[in-house]
Structure formats: structure tokens, C-alpha cells
Amino acid sequence: MKRKHKSWKLALICILSIAMLAACSGKGATPGNSSTPSSSTPDTTAAPGNSEPAVYEENGLPKDEKVTLKFAYWESGTGREWIDYAIRTFEEKFPNVKIDTTYSPKIDTIISTKISANNDDDMFDIFSAFLGENSAAVAAALAKEGKIVPQEDLWERKLYDGDGKTLGELTNALNKSTPTLHGTQYALPYSQNVTGLFYNKLLFEEKGWNQSPQTWAEFTELVDTIRADNIIPITYPGKYPGYLEFSLGVNQMYATADINGNLDSFNKNYKNYQTPFYMSEESVNVHNKIYELGKKKAFPDGVAALSHTQSQMQLLQGQAATASTGEWVQNEMKDSIPEGFQWGFMLIPMGEKAEDVKYYSSHPGGGHYIWSAKPELNKKWAKEFILWMYNLDVQLQIAEKAGTLPVRADFLNDESKADKLQDAPKAVLEYLKNNNVKGASPDLRDVSLTHQNADRAMKLVRESLNDIASGKQDPLPKLEEAEKLLQVAVDAQQ
Q: Using CA atoms, how far apart are residues 412 and 418, in angstroms rounded to an integer?
């Protein structure tokens, strides 16, 4: 058992250390703005006539000024138990601060309505970074207009329970894998998600199926074997075709580039929106492989009608062998998991050799924006609440209750915490330990395109995925059309 814990620790440290490419790299944090208390000991000198300062020693903020923060929380697959814990403990520590929370699985609609209303008083102080299908474009526009507050200064803040260490020091280069808007970070991740194919190990063992194909040929052989058993090889929610990209997307493009010796060039082009992208060798390869799998009937009939919970139910009920999703799936489906189901995880290999590298998709998880038109004191307390989410006890709740991977690098210093990870995240860590893998973050780019054609290009390709995955649509015409749209957006940006 002790050896197993250590293997999880090593795998988790590598995830925590991801920059854009291979894990375990990164640079120093960027200084932030001056609106938040510094990491140094604040001035707590009492005013004349007062016997003691009326500020908190930890952050220099006033104890006697009541503040209410309106908070919009996206109630997704990670649930709300962990955030309720964070709110409760924060309010206990700072009783003059109240957090008034709006929970909703449709929080993007609620936030968008308030943004459109342009009423700063009614707007949330803190709100989810998930803003719908066009989330990146909406956020980029808010950043450009100065509507949200930069948060990069938090990397230099000492954590409340960090023994004098800063957020940057205790998250191992997470600052380098956090997405930017126009070169600045506005929402810091408090968890990490790893995506790929999840499956039932017991079913694979019963059928004698390959649980870790190392080449594309081995993977397609597995698909044929599963299909011959009248089971769907891979399911995903066609209502949200971006889920297919969790296992056959940008991370597989990185694998293709790495195998072909083109990694540096692809990485530079991807991060800076250099064209061609949709018509790049890497993109064409991945979409052609989806098309190849579609002609093999690898995906469900009528996939376009499936929601994410319906596709994941196909996995849990044994109708499908694997599901393209993230490690949050166990927590999201906890009320439907049958007895005896045992989580497994694999990546889809792109190479022809067993030693070829495989890339997993790493998504910095969560994050919240702060509305810039709020009172300065509100914005300062909003940053304190965001910092609070990195306390080890809150990170433990993220692991245990939200079913995802924490970002504190010292999380597993106490080996008992490994037992708090749910089985799906453990399966991810076990796979990463035993295979030649690197990580890429599809969310991390150095340039933000604001022209509408960038979103139109992405939407065109995603809306074509179901037809490509059914073997009905050759991907090349759609990729060519998307490339032309993207080129207009790139030219407009320049």
C-alpha cells in the first residue's frame, strides 16, 4: 500500500508541474497589481486611542467593516459540497464577511444576463469562469474592456496554511499552465482535470480486452474486438461534441507533432494562433482518425441525441466499453454507479511504436472572475476568498467531494490523503505512472482572438464532429472551411 501511495504522489506531482508541454517545467510567477494586501506582514498599528488594531493580522483587512460578496457558482459534475465547506470555513474565520451564493448548472446564462444588463450593483462580485459555449471570447471581451480584475498577484501571496510559502511555490509552476486573456491571468485554477477514455476494469478483465493499447494499430484492433461483441467501443455526448476532443483532440495533435519531430513548431503555432491550424498535419491526422473510427462504427448510433449523463450511463450499464470524459465522471455519476464497477483509464495512442509518447489533456480546473466595478474592499475580500480555496483542508474537500485532482503540491505529504482521492482520479494517476506520457493544456494560449470568425471556425468543426464520427463526413472539406474562417480572424487581429 505504501508503494502505491508513492506512485500516486509522483504522478500527481507531474500533473501539478505541467506548463504547456511535458510535465515538471515552469518559470517564476508574474507580479500582480497593488489592490490586494501583499504577502509581507501588514501594518497593524492601532489608531490613536485604540488598544489593538481593527484589522486581521493575516491580510491587513478591516475586522469591523461588514462586506457581502455576491458569488455565482457553477454547479457541475464536481457538486457543491466542497465549495459549501470553503464558504463556511471562510465566514467562520472572517465573520464580518458574508458570501451570498447563487448555485446553478446554468450559471453561464445567469451571468450573461447580468453582464448584458450592465448594472454594476446587481452584478456578482465573484463569478464562475464558465461562460457558456463562447466562454473564451466572452472572457476576452470582458478583459479587454477592463470589466474583470487581474489575479496574477495572488501567486506571490503567502497561503493561510502554507508555513510562509506562497501560492506559486506550493503549486509547482501552475502559474505557467493557467490560461491568459491578452497575456494576463484573470482566473486561477483551484483543481486540475485530466481527460481521456474511462472504462470498467472488471468488464475488460472478463472479456480479456487490452487495457493499455500502445499503438494506433493495437487501439483499432481493440475497437474491432469490442464491436464484434456488440458493445459500443467509445461513447461521448453528441449534444456536446467537444467531449470527443477530451480523448481525440489537441492532446493527440501534440502527440502527432512529438512523434514526427515537429513539437516545437506545433507548440509555438498553437499557442500563438499561427495558421494553418485546422489544416495542419496534426489536425488533419486526428480528424482522419476520428473518421476512420467512425467507419468502424466505434461510436454510438444516434450519438447526436446523447447528453453527457446519457453517454456515461451507457458506460455504467455495460452498453459502451469506454467513455470520453474527465476524472470528475465518478463524482458526477456517483448515484448511478453499479456495484462492482471498477474505474480504469487509458489514452488513445497515435504512434506506430510502443515507445511513442502519448499525451493527456490537462485542464486547469475551476477558477472565478472578479467584477472590476465593485468597491475596492469587496475586490480585496474576493481575492482572499479565492486564496482560501488553496488551503489544504479545502483541497482535501476538492479531492474527496468533488472527485477531481487538487493543485497543492504538498497535498500527498500526508499519505493518508491518497485514500481520499476517488477511484477515477486514482486510475488516471496509475496510468500516468506506468506509461510514456506528457501533458498538454488545450486551454493555454498566448494570444486571444476576439474576431467572431475564430468562434465560428471552432463551432463549425465541433458541429461536424458527429458526422465525422459516424463515418458520413470526410473531415477535409470542413477543416478547409474552418481554416479560411480562422485566417480572417488572425488577419483581423494582426
A: 6
pTM: 0.77
Dist CA 465 CA 275 (whole Å):
21
Closest CA to 148 of 132, 124, 179: 124
pLDDT tens-digit map of 31-61:
333 333 333 334 444 545 555 669 999 999 9
**CA nearest 78: which of 316, 345, 305, 367?**
367
Pairing of strands 358-365, 126-128: unpaired
Q: Is 301 exposed, middle or buried (0-12, 13-18, 19+ CB in 10 A)?
A: exposed
* 440, 357 contact by CB (below 8 A): no
Give the bridge partners for 439, in sequence order.
Answer: 360
Q: How far from the centroid of its chain's Cα atoms is residue 188's Cα? A: 11
Name which of 251, 191, 254 is nearest 16 in CA terms. Answer: 191
* DSSP secondary structure letter of residue 487: H
Q: Within 10 A of 212 (CB to CB), how many other CB atoms are there? A: 16
- Do 371 and 295 meet the contact criterion of CB atoms below 8 Å apart? no
Asked whether residue 292 carries a pLDDT value surpassing 60, the answer given is yes
The closest alpha carbon to 343, from 445, 425, 238, belongs to 425
**Could you read off the pLDDT of 469-483 as tens digits, one per residue?**
999 999 999 999 999
Q: CB neighbours of 92 closer than 8 A, spacing ≥ 6?
A: none
Length of the chain equals: 494
CA 422 to chain centre: 17
Cell (9 digits) for 207 = 472479456
Which stretch of 21-25, 27-31, 304-308, 337-341 has the lowest confidence by average pLDDT? 27-31
Quick check: 33 and 150 in contact, CB under 8 A? yes
Place of cell 464558504: 87
Provide the grid cell at 400.
474527496
Number of neighbours of residue 138 by Cβ within 10 angstroms:
17
